[in-house]
């Protein structure tokens, strides 16, 4: 399956909707897009995993970079709609307690 990223912005919040598999081949593209969004003046970045079927450790490393950015900039970094496969990748590294994860959240629940 191919990997794609759709970005949108609303109410000073950027949303990255990911689709496909996140592995070491596509992680550089994911990283570049994430850092591009993180460098914009956004109060919150939401990474939506609704259509992600798999993520390896390179994807987790990219998320850690996003989290570091958010902490330095005192901004929010949220993962939403994290499926079992992705959740297992995050839990394996014990980062499931570090990330803010919203299960099955819609835009209306995230945009306040």
Report on the architecture of this protein.
With 112 residues, this protein is an alpha/beta fold. The chain has one domain (4-110): STAS domain (Transcription Regulator spoIIAA), CATH 3.30.750.24. 38% of the residues lie in helices and 33% in strands. A 5-stranded mixed β-sheet has the order 1-2-3-4-5. Helix 1 (27-39) runs parallel beside helix 2. The longest helix has 17 residues, at 57-73. The N and C termini lie far apart (34 Å).
Summarize the structure.
The protein is an alpha/beta fold and 112 residues long.
Entry keywords:
single chain; 112 residues; alpha/beta; Transcription Regulator spoIIAA; five-stranded mixed sheet; 5 strands
Structural class by helix and strand composition = alpha/beta
Query: What number of structural domains do the residues give?
Result: 1
Nearest-angstrom radius of gyration? 13 Å
Q: Show unreliable segments.
A: none
Q: What is the averaged pLDDT score?
A: 89
How much β-strand is present in the residues? 25-35%
Structural topology:
Blueprint: E1 4-10, E2 13-22, H1 27-39, E3 44-55, H2 57-73, E4 76-80, H3 84-92, E5 100-102, H4 107-110
Helix pairs in contact: 1-2
